[in-house]
Specification:
The complex is a heterodimer of chains A (291) and B (361).
Chain A lengths: L8 E10 L2 E11 L4 E5 L6 H9 L6 E6 L2 E2 L5 H4 L3 E4 L11 H7 L13 H10 L15 H18 L9 E5 L7 H16 L3 E5 L3 H7 L2 E6 L2 E6 L1 H4 L2 H8 L3 E5 L5 E5 L11 H11 L4
Parallel strand pairs in A: 3-8, 3-9, 6-7, 7-8
Antiparallel strand pairs in A: 1-2, 1-4, 4-5, 9-10, 11-12
Chain B lengths: L16 H25 L11 H8 L9 H35 L11 H19 L1 H7 L3 H20 L8 H25 L3 H4 L2 H5 L7 H29 L2 H6 L4 H23 L5 H13 L3 H25 L8 H20 L4
Helix pairs in contact in B: 1-3, 1-14, 3-10, 3-12, 3-13, 3-14, 4-5, 4-6, 4-7, 4-12, 6-12, 10-12, 13-14, 14-15
Classes of the chains: A alpha/beta (291), B mainly alpha (361).
């Protein structure tokens, strides 16, 4: 081995097609341990499909995906589940588990001997997503946002109860975790993912909100038509030309006073959607140093 | 976030109140199961009760001189195998129902309602009607297992057909599942009619035995015939628990949690087809135990398969033994088909479930 510490996730030349249509086309992406990478792109860009290739749900037609240097296909699902948790976009549940029981399912990864009571880990995970108050409520009675957070807690519970072996980076793969959430909960969820990365996990999240992604991710991967358009720091990705081209609409990129990049759509009359403030902020940003 | 701070002890611990009450529930169900079985041994038109047991045991061991072996015959050769078969049929159908409901993610899946029992009965009837003529070597080779194995193949065919209707992303709709069951049951009963018409075998003269279910023909050879399937069910049950819990979230989620989904589904399909097939081979089509039992357990203790499967086995066995007792004594000295009793209780219950679910179907 030339490289003693391989990246946590390494996708190289990954391709996936259905009926001759390339949903993911020659995507290569490297995620080191401790990093949080956001996948951005318009609807139908292949973001979720790419994530499913990384989870192992779908098998790539070409290329390969390595976890800590080991091909994904060579790992047994049970061993994989000890270090890789996935939060799906949506999940339906026919039977009336309580929220706590759904979270506890995360701890029921095979290969841990006898089934045991993981309610403490589940309570801890529910607390982390601010849902202690729904623990005993039926999952089917929860709101969309609460369900989404329950699944995030389930993924946390999975990684917390399954200690990965040395040399295995915990992986957290998340598909649009904030789509049903208000801005407060969006922030809390992303802060949680951020913390997971700080603790050494590699986090890959499909996100829709460019500004939120720019605020929390170490790097952003921009996809369009199944291809990786660009991958870089938020400052490198959140640019007028790049985003306008990728999303096919006029976008105006800016920076907050604290130099976090953000983007606003430009409306038909040529002004920003939110009229004047962005320009003002841009000027301010160029004049003042960050707070 | 991934690792709790040292102060937060998340280690798995035994003996939460939740688990303790579940353990107590299992013990209570186990006691009911055994009590019903003892009751079943001591009830019957001959008037012999368990009070004869010490004497019978004495005779069997050659310790005491008996009264011509009448009691021993009734207790050991008629009631004991019958009770054992009722226990097995009830437990197998209830557990298979719970397992199928988990796999199809649909609480209305029941081996009887979705056509699995019909498929099993059709193949068992086919083996009786045509086995001697067309498969004499195979039938002789399989011996007492010929019927259960034929029923297993029939149940497997029906289950595989239903699995091919499912789609990994979504739970199968109740409509599709039940309509497929109606079609399978209609086809199977038509073909069974043809088989009965073509064959003059005594065993087929009374087709109602197969369509309504009965344990009247219980014997030790049937117990031995069903035994391998009962053992397979028992051996695979523990490993199916985790798979099923994961599958309740969806197939993709189950895979994320470490379940080898394709293999888990294959195990489920084969094991339940075998369990249902053997139950049908010994008792015909006994309906509704597979839907009533898991539903009651879920109402009380939730859908966690760690509790659901063993509890369903115990309650299903208790219900079947109880129903068979009623079947034997209600119109003595004649006897009601077992399936009539289970349908009398189960059908209104099922109707209630369907009506309550209403548009959610």
């Amino acid at each position: 081995m030339a490289n003693p510490t391989p990246p946590a996730i390494e996708a190289s030349g990954v391709r996936f097609e259905i009926g001759g249509k390339r949903l993911v086309d020659d995507v290569s992406l490297v995620i080191p341990p401790g990093r949080m990478v956001g996948i951005l792109g318009p609807n139908g860009a292949g973001k979720s499909t790419f994530l499913k290739l990384v989870t192992g749900e779908l098998k790539p037609a070409a290329g390969q995906i390595l976890f800590d240097g080991i091909p994904l296909g060579q790992t047994h699902p049970a061993l994989l589940a000890r270090r890789r948790a996935v939060v799906p976009q949506s999940s339906q549940l026919t039977f009336s588990f309580s929220a706590l029981e759904v979270v506890m399912l995360g701890a029921s990864v095979p290969g841990f001997g006898l089934p045991r009571d993981h309610s403490r880990a589940a309570e801890w995970a529910l607390d982390r997503v601010g849902l202690t108050y729904v623990a005993e409520r039926k999952y089917t009675d929860l709101s969309g946002g609460e369900r989404q957070r329950v699944h995030i807690a389930r993924a946390m519970c999975q990684l917390a109860t399954a200690p990965p072996s040395p040399g295995e980076t915990p992986l957290l793969l998340v598909d649009e975790p904030t789509s049903n959430l208000d801005i407060g909960h969006q922030r809390r969820v992303l802060e949680g993912l951020r913390e997971a990365a700080s603790d050494g996990a590699a986090v890959l999240a499909v996100l829709h909100d460019i500004n939120l992604a720019a605020g929390y991710c170490d790097s952003l991967a921009l996809m369009r038509d199944g291809r990786l358009v660009a991958h870089g720091t938020p400052e490198q990705i959140v640019r007028d030309d790049l985003l306008s081209h990728t999303y096919g609409c006029a976008l105006d990129a800016n920076q907050t006073p604290s130099r976090t990049p953000f983007v606003l759509p430009i409306t038909r009359d040529g002004s920003d959607a939110a009229s004047s403030p962005p320009r003002g902020i841009r000027q301010q940003a160029s004049e003042t140093t960050s707070r | 976030m991934l690792k709790p701070t040292p102060a937060e002890d998340l280690s798995a611990h035994a003996g939460s109140t939740h688990d303790r009450s579940r353990t107590r529930g299992l013990v209570a169900l186990g006691i009911a199961f055994l009590l019903t079985a003892f009751l079943s041994l001591s009830v019957g038109p001959s008037g012999i009760t368990l009070l004869s047991l010490p004497q019978v045991l004495g005779e069997v061991t050659g310790y005491s001189v008996g009264t011509g072996g009448h009691e021993a015959l009734v207790l050991l050769d008629i009631r004991l195998p019958r009770t054992l078969l009722a226990m097995y049929v009830g437990a197998a159908l209830a557990v298979s129902g719970a397992i199928m409901q988990g796999m199809f993610r649909n609480p209305l899946a029941d081996p009887g309602l979705i056509g699995v029992s019909s498929g099993a009965a059709l193949f068992a009837v086919g083996m009786i009607a045509f086995g001697d003529a067309y498969l004499p070597t195979l039938k002789a080779l399989l011996g007492v297992h010929a019927l259960p194995i034929a029923a297993f193949v029939g149940g497997l065919s029906a289950t595989l057909l239903l699995v091919s209707l499912t789609n990994g992303r979504r739970a199968i709709s109740t409509g599709t599942l039940l309509l497929a069951g109606v079609a399978l049951a209609a086809l199977a009963s038509a073909l069974m009619g043809v088989a009965a018409y073509l064959s003059d075998d005594r065993a087929l003269r009374d087709l109602t035995l197969w369509t309504l279910g009965s344990l009247a023909g219980a014997s030790w050879s049937k117990v031995i015939g069903a035994l391998p399937f009962a053992l397979v069910l028992g051996i695979f049950l523990p490993r199916m628990i985790r798979d099923l819990n994961g599958l309740l979230l969806g197939e993709a989620e189950a895979y994320h949690l470490g379940v080898n989904v394709q293999r888990a589904k294959m195990v489920i399909v084969f094991v339940t087809a075998g369990a249902v097939g053997a139950a049908v081979a010994v008792a015909g089509i006994v309906g509704f135990i597979g839907i009533v039992t898991p539903h009651i357990i879920r109402l009380v203790a939730g859908p966690d398969h760690r509790f659901l499967l063993p509890a369903s086995a115990l309650l299903g066995g208790t219900l079947a033994v109880g129903a068979d007792m009623v079947a034997r004594v209600a119109v003595a000295p004649a006897e009601l088909p077992l399936g009539i009793i289970t349908a009398l209780i189960g059908a209104p219950f099922f109707l209630h479930l369907v009506l309550r679910r209403g548009v959610h179907g």
